[in-house]
Specification:
six-stranded mixed β-sheet, flat, about 45% helix, two-stranded antiparallel sheet, Rossmann fold, alpha/beta
Amino acid sequence: MPDPGAVLTRNWLHFGRILRGLGFDAGPARMLPFLAALTVIDLRRPDDLRTAVHIHFARRRDELFLLDRALAAFLRANAPPGELPAPPATTSSDRGASITITGRQLKVLDEDGAAEGAEEQEVASYSQAEVLRRKDFDTLTEAEMAEVRRLIRLMRLPAGLTRSRRARAGGHDRLDIRRLLRRSLRFGGELLVFSWKSPTLRPRPLVLLCDISGSMERYTRLLLNFTYALKSASTRVEVFVFATRLTRITRLLRSHDVDAALNRVMASVDDWSGGTRIGEAIESFNRRYARRVLSHGATVAIISDGWDRGDAAQMRQAIARLQRSCHRLIWMNPLMGAPGYEPLTLGLQAALPFVDDFLPAHNLANLEALGVLLLETAHRRPVRRQTLVTASA
C-alpha cells in the first residue's frame, strides 16, 4: 500500500500544477509553505482549506472566485466514486472565459494508472487570455474590454537595470581605496586585506507620454490602465498626458484603487479628448520637466497615433532635443494594427527620423513587448545618426 502522506502530497502538487496552468504563481516558493500549512489544519473543514489556498496563492481580491472554483473542482475529482456532487452550472460569462479541466489532470493516479470515477469539470479561468492578447483593441466588445483592462492591471513588466553611480561593497570591479586604507591600520599600514566594490544596479527610469486627444479616445482608458500597472510595478516611472497641453499625472496614479486613480486623472485634465498638438506638448516637457526626470538616463515612451494639428518644424525640433536628452526614445502607435497602415501624417514624418523604436500598440501582446524591449536594451544605447538626418532635413 502506498504511503497516505505521499499520496496526499502528490495530490496537492497536482493542484499546484493546475493553478500554474490557470496563471497563478504556484511554484516551489508558494507550494512548500502551503503543504506545510496542510499538516496543521483540519482538512475536513472546507473553510480552513479555502483560507489556506487564498493566503498562499491569491494576489488580488478578484482572484478569490477563480481559486474557489478550482479548489471545488479539484476536491470533486478526488472524491470517491459515487460521491461526486453534481457540478454547478458554468457558463462562459464567469470571469469572461472558461476552460475544461479533466479528472485525469486533477486526480493523482494510482500505480496501475486507473482513473475510474474521474469526470470532467469546467472551471473559469484565463483560457481566453491568449486570444485577447492578439485581438485589436478597436474590435473588442465591452465585456472583452473589461477583461483586457483586468489583465493589464495584473501585468508586471520587467524593468531594465542600469548601473548607479553609488557603489556597494563586494564584487571584483574595482578597489575600495577608502576601506582598504582603513583596514591597513590594523596591520601597521601594510596593505594585507584588499577590499573591492561594485556599482549598484537600479531600475532604469521610464517616462511615459500618453496621447489623450479625441482620435485616441477608443484607446485612452486601456492605455491609462497600462500606465497605472507600470507605475504600480516601479517607483521610477513618470507619467504625462497631453492633447493640446501637457499634464503630469504621476501623483494621481499613486493609489491602490485603479478606478479611483483614473477618475481623478480624468477630472484633473482639462483637455481630455480635445485636439492634438504633439510638438507643443513635447516642447513643454523639454522646457519644464526634462532636466528633472531625464537626468538619470531615462527611457521615454510616447504613445500616440501621430495625428497632429501643430507645426511640423516645431515637432522636429522638440523630438530631436528629447532624443538627445534620453537613453532611448520609443514611439508606440495604436494604428499600426490596421492593414496597410503607413505613417504619412506630417507630424510623424517629422518625428520618425529621431525615434529609436517605432512599435505597434493595438493589442495586449504589443504592450507586453514593451517590457521585453526595456529589459533587452537597458545596458546599451541605440545607434543614432542625428547629424545625417539633420543635414538632409
